[in-house]
Design goal:
- It is found in: Cytoplasmic vesicle membrane.
- It holds the Pfam family BAR_3_WASP_bdg.
- By secondary structure, the chain is mainly alpha-helical.
- It has two domains: 171 residues, PX Domain, CATH 3.30.1520.10; 179 residues, Substrate Binding Domain Of Dnak, Chain:A, Domain 2 (Up-down Bundle), CATH 1.20.1270.60.
- It is built from twelve helices and six strands.
- A three-stranded mixed β-sheet has the order 2-1-6. It has a three-stranded antiparallel β-sheet with strand order 3-4-5.
Length: 424
């Protein structure tokens, strides 16, 4: 249900039909994200609520346009290897992760279902913010140990993105999740209920956003539209290439673990056979050569193992990052849809004013509220790019460093083998 590019007058555009629509028409598609997110109700001025100072979210003008105001107290949170815990005197066991937020230094234990609850709350509360997706809940075809460590790495990326986001990092539900002592059931439930009763969700969420005011602070609609369209094209391309890279990396890892390993070990085996054949010649002067060839065989065997272990060091982390970003990219169509819906309402109201069907004041209100959504959307787009550059830079550096170390290990094996021939 994307709003059409060219707004038609309500009611299909016949002269008779147009007369009856004295206000901006409502979106009839109740399943549209613009409607579900509360964006429509907000733009039409139907949201009202008292915004406490603590709930205010500021968008500021940075060098690259609108940005979320930075978190004045940045923090990180480590996620350590999960432990099995039991309840009901050992009847039921589950896995809990140890979280240590740097701003409190107090460790808490959280289960996957707690992460899941938090994700659900935040995805509902913030219509124009990309809440990172959680890694999958259950193992598919991998044995448990492997799966659990993989999921922990996914959760570590997730946590990093939560802490790096100026809005998500500071929101109450997330802070409750990070700081409520694991042993205090009562406090946990209270915080949970408080988050679930939060009034500043949906349409009211937009009321909490404060944007730059003053002469130069209103955004140009045309410009916003072209920026958002540009970003839409970007996300589509990035999604395709991330999928492609993920597929290629997966294939490459699989080949290294099975194919390359087997091929190198075949070569090693053949050298070994040669040295065994040479041993049938009982001459003492050829003993050195036989040992050197046998050593070369072992070197190739070892190189095969190096290939099999390598993807864990370099390709897997790249795929973990891609998985996280594919989650973000899946969020953006809805965010863009909310923005588009707001722009459509503004165009419609302008036309109604020209046709004398709406007071200017009402149209200006719509435009002002659309301006708020635009500021928030552009701030979110800016944040995405900033984090993306940071993440892909560090991940590519890690990848190449690991590749270099790997080839150094391979070279070292070959050099050792070569030296065995010096004394032959």
């Amino acid at each position: 249900g994307h709003p059409p590019g060219h707004p038609h007058p309500a009611g299909g555009g016949g002269a008779g039909a147009a007369k009856s629509s004295a206000t901006v028409s409502r979106n009839l598609n109740r399943f549209s994200t613009f409607v579900k997110s509360g964006g429509e109700a907000f733009v039409l001025g139907e949201a009202s609520g008292f915004v406490k100072d603590g709930d205010k979210l500021c968008v500021v003008l940075g060098p690259r346009g609108p940005e979320w105001q930075e978190n004045p107290y940045p923090f990180q949170c480590s996620i350590e290897d999960p432990t099995k815990q039991t309840k009901f005197k050992g009847m039921k066991s589950y896995i809990a992760y140890k979280l240590v937020p740097s701003h409190t230094g107090q460790q808490v234990h959280r289960r996957y279902k707690h992460f899941d609850w938090l994700y659900g709350r935040l995805a509902e509360k913030f219509p124009v913010i990309s809440v990172p997706h959680l890694p999958e809940k259950q193992a598919t075809g991998r044995f448990e140990e492997d799966f659990i460590s993989k999921r922990r790495k996914g959760l570590a990326w997730w946590m990093d993105h939560m802490c790096s986001h100026p809005v998500l990092a500071q929101c109450d539900a997330f802070q409750h999740f990070l700081t409520c002592p694991s042993t205090d059931e009562k406090a946990w439930k209270q915080g949970k209920r408080k988050a679930e009763k939060d009034e500043m969700v949906g349409a009211n969420f937009f009321l909490t956003i404060s944007v730059p005011t003053g002469p130069g602070a209103s955004l140009d609609l045309q410009e916003v539209e072209s920026q958002v369209d540009g970003f839409k094209a970007f996300t589509k391309k990035m999604d395709e290439s991330a999928l492609q890279l993920n597929h290629t990396a997966n294939e490459f890892a699989r080949k290294q673990v099975t194919g390359f390993k087997k091929e190198y070990q075949k070569v090693g085996h053949s050298f070994k056979c040669l040295s065994q054949a040479f041993e049938l010649d009982q001459q003492t002067f050829s003993a050195g050569l036989n040992q050197a060839i046998a050593f070369t065989a072992e070197a190739y065997d070892a190189i095969g193992d190096l290939f099999a272990d390598q993807p864990r060091q370099d390709l897997d982390p790249v795929m973990d990052l891609l998985a996280l970003y594919q989650g973000h990219l899946a969020n953006f169509p809805d965010i863009i849809h909310v923005q588009k819906g707001a722009l459509t309402k503004v165009k419609e109201s302008k036309r109604h004013v020209e046709e004398g069907k709406m007071e200017l004041q009402k149209a200006e209100g719509i435009q002002e509220r659309c301006n708020i959504i635009s500021f928030a959307t552009l701030a979110e787009i800016n944040h995405f790019h900033k984090i993306r550059v940071r993440d892909f830079k560090s991940q590519m550096q890690h990848f190449l460093q690991q590749q270099i170390l790997f080839f150094q290990k391979v070279t070292q094996k070959l050099e050792e083998a070569l030296h065995k021939y010096d004394s032959v």
